[in-house]
Amino acid sequence: MAPTLFPMESKNSKTDSVRAAGAPQACKHLAEKKTMTNPTTVIEVYPDTTEVNDYYLWSIFNFVYLNFCCLGFIALAYSLKVRDKKLLNDLNGAVEDAKTARLFNITSSALAASCIILVFIFLRYPLTDY
């Protein structure tokens, strides 16, 4: 007779009293040996793309108001590329394009602000007085 994985308990009360009086009985959970493989759970962790700033509003502002030599348009194009790469979970590409968009936004803002300051200076002190 082959050993069984789950032994059947007897219904006879005499054998139960003999088992109780005799040698200690093995626990039920030890008798039920189950083969359990180590389950592996795979959790895909995507990088947090909310940390990558796309400078979209700043690019829109530069494009509409301070579009100095089309730098605001270029910054807007890179800001849109950042949004696309964030949707594709390309974090490295999104960071690189965000740096480029920030560079164009800073350049466009600085050049436009310096031109506005020069206009006010020339309006206040015209060249005809010199």
Helical proportion? 55-70%
Number of helices: 5
- Beta content comes to under 5%
Q: By helix and strand content, what is the structural category?
A: mainly alpha
InterPro entries: CD225/Dispanin_fam, IFITM_antiviral_protein
Protein name: Interferon-induced transmembrane protein 10
Transmembrane segments: 55-80, 101-123
Main location: membrane
Written account of the structure:
The chain is mainly alpha-helical and 130 residues long. The protein has helices spanning 13-21, 28-31, 56-64, 71-87, 91-124. Helix 3 (56-64) packs antiparallel against helix 4 (71-87) and helix 4 runs antiparallel to helix 5 (91-124). It is rod-shaped and about 115 Å long. The N and C termini lie far apart (119 Å).
How is the topology of this model organized?
Blueprint: H1 13-21, H2 28-31, H3 56-64, H4 71-87, H5 91-124
Helix pairs in contact: 3-4, 4-5
Put the structure in a nutshell.
With 130 residues, the protein is mainly alpha-helical. The chain has helices spanning 13-21, 28-31, 56-64, 71-87, 91-124. It contains 5 helices and no strands.
Structural descriptors:
single chain, 0% strand, membrane, IFITM_antiviral_protein, transmembrane, 130 residues, mainly alpha, 56% helix
